[in-house]
Batch of 2 targets.
Target 1
Amino acid sequence: MADNATQNDSIELVAECLCKAHRFTTHVPRSSLPLSSIYCHCDSCRRVTGALYSTYLPWPGSRSSIHERIQTSRLKRYAFSESTTLFSCETCSSTLFAATPARDGSDVPDYGVTTGVLHNTSVPNFIDIAHHIFLSDTKDGGATPWLCDSNSSSAARPRLWSGRSGSSEELSSTDHKWALPLNAPIPASTPVRCHCGGVDLVLRNPIPDFAVLNRSELPWFVDPESNKSLGGFDVCDSCRVSSGVDIFHWTFAQLAHIAFATPDSSSHFPSSTHDLAAALTSPHRDPRLGTLTMYQSSSDVQRYFCSACSAAVFYATDARAEMVDLSIGLLRSSHGSRAEELVSWDFGGRAVWREDVAGGWREGFIQSVEAAAERWRIGRGLPKNFRRVQKEEAAAAAAAADQE
Ligand SMILES: [Zn+2]
Ligand SMILES: [Zn+2]
Ligand SMILES: [Zn+2]
């Protein structure tokens, strides 16, 4: 929901984790808008968020004040790399800050705040994307095809880099060069592993199992043509704040297709969400569950994440006991970060939970992303996703029924 955090010529910027245990604020002058964010698409960022990227904004307030606040907080520290430390909420997994060595040589590090944890302030053009970095890691361009046209003016397009901004090859355009063959070979299993490796699972190729089912027996998330699993654009407040990115991308999997990376014929990965929740706290907890842990974000919703690096892993609900939403960023596809050999993407479809962004700065951003993804789908000659066709047909049928 949008909030009215405006004060005369400055705007209050609020960063807060999902469980609300941690909250940081500062004021930014209106004249400094839009603020500039960086999207990092590197392998490590995808594996530490579970998303297709990490998104940071240099903290726009006093460096010494935020340093003091973070260092005296109970935020959990994670050594992301030799030079970068991440700060996350231990309870709900939201990553709020990254500390990197100060560019001016100060002993006090520079802090970036994840854009997903920022309140949805009702100020248009609040944040522009300045750079997309480490695109070469994605192999397929990742999310950049729909993240290059959302800035406040068309003159301010983000710059694209194969590696670091300013010191790697600058890429001229996303267009079609990032499209990969949709029917790339699929290995028997694809690793599902977080940045620290504490969550070390595999997704067994589900397509042969789905292919032999009658179409009427397919789970709702399976594309009846390709037998791939739906991949969508999720902008719900809870997924945004817990992952730290503004748009999260889930696919879906039956728990029967998830396995431990080290198989053992005597015990298997839990086959229902109830068994999974119970397995975490069992006195006979399987050590192969590793660092997998869970936050109950509402009475029937469980968010599974890595307790060490905070990567989002699964979203589960009591009502869908046989399946989970699965973080696409953890899928270690050999073909590309979008894992198109397994995922039937709803490019250009309406983002789910779009009502959550209404009235805030993200509303225009999401609309432009939907439109860019639709142009890209059409440019690649892809049909509308099956799920979108189903929804459009249902809406048309309901409208026709209303007329009668
Ligand atoms: Zn929290
Ligand atoms: Zn990165
Ligand atoms: Zn981890």
Target 2
Amino acid sequence: MAVTVEIEKHSGFCGGVIRAISRAEQFLDSQPGKKLYSLGAIVHNEAELLRLGAKGLVTIGHDDIGSIPSPSTKTLLIRAHGEPPETYEIARRAGINVIDCTCPVVLRLQKDIREAKGQVLVFGKIGHAEVLGLLGQVGGNAVVIEDMSMLLDALEDGTIRTDVPVEIFSQTTKSPTEYAEICKVLTDRVPAGLTVHNTICSQVASRHAELSGFSTSHDVIIFVSGASSSNGKVLCDLCRSKNPRTHHISSPADIDPSWFRPDDRVGICGATSTPRWLLEQVARKITAGPR
Ligand code: SF4
């Protein structure tokens, strides 16, 4: 008997990534031969970056903004993660047009954090672009915690003060379960009062629930995402916690036939940055079997 293969029906790009990519393609298709400069990877997926690179999308870093060539092509795309205010100022001073693709969910989070009173905490990955964008909204005046052990250390050494009110925000792609655990500890440890902002993206939160069920209802899980995808790491860890036969891959070439037994039900899923076409390629390769 051959393996059966199913792609999880909600896997594929989230709304914010679809919006950013479609705006980039609109620009490139309407101005053939021109380049569009993306500040950081528009999506954490190498295969999709290659596809868009062939159309003229160039990924640059912050240090490269000043050296974007030729005035007629000076257009900078800000990706769904968002940026701190100073990036817009640098672009304005350099005479660069900006296509702002900050996800509306992130824009709302940036606004909420600007309006926070008291001590601001961010549950997120230190150095992640979205987190840097959030810190920029409050002039860097916030404490970032990545996990429970960092929270406990920060409470212990006084980095987080417990005698003043605290407002906590989460990076949009963090685990809802971990965020709830962190907020529970803070509720018990901050007598001055805690305000919890529910800022995990609903598309990410619902994927946690969907992938939990999907992982337990298949014999093997193939999780597809780029190596640098933060959301991919969180969701893949979730799948592995539900199904130890979970394998992370970035492309069909990473598939190892020894992972499968003859009658396995194989589930294929991915991060909010994994294109649907890549999941379909993976499904075809597994269905075709070893050659
Ligand atoms: S995961 Fe949610 S918040 Fe992040 S880009 Fe996608 S839709 Fe926007």
